[in-house]
């Protein structure tokens, strides 16, 4: 849409890794947070409110083991 010069979408979910290149290419317009009601602002932490985007998903991975399966100590590498 950006390359064709015809933007049909007002909002899209993108992968975080693609954001910097898309931002550099000028594919976004600033979010007008003054249009948001107070409940929406309160539910969106300030660090997730970027100039041209809102972070909607953050994740982490945790590696754990069952101590019962490794009674002499857990994995070391």
**Could you estimate the helical fraction of the residues in percent?**
10-25%
Give me the count of strands: 0
Q: Please report the number of helical segments.
A: 2
Question: What would you report as the Rg, rounded to the nearest angstrom?
Answer: 20 Å
What's the SSE pattern?
A: HH
- In round numbers, the mean pLDDT is 90
* Percent of residues in β-strands: under 5%
Structural class: little secondary structure
What about the largest sheet? none
Shape annotation: elongated
Amino-to-carboxy terminus distance: 46 Å
Q: Uncertain segments of ≥5 residues (pLDDT<50)?
A: none
Features:
little secondary structure; 2 helices; 0% strand; 77 residues; single chain
């Amino acid at each position: 849409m950006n390359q064709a010069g015809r933007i049909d979408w007002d909002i899209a979910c993108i992968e975080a890794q693609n954001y910097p290149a898309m931002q550099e290419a000028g594919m976004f317009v600033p979010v007008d947070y003054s249009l948001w009601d107070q409940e929406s602002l309160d539910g969106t932490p300030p660090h997730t409110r970027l100039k041209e985007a809102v972070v909607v998903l953050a994740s982490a991975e945790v590696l754990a083991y069952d101590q019962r399966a490794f009674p002499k100590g857990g994995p070391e590498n």
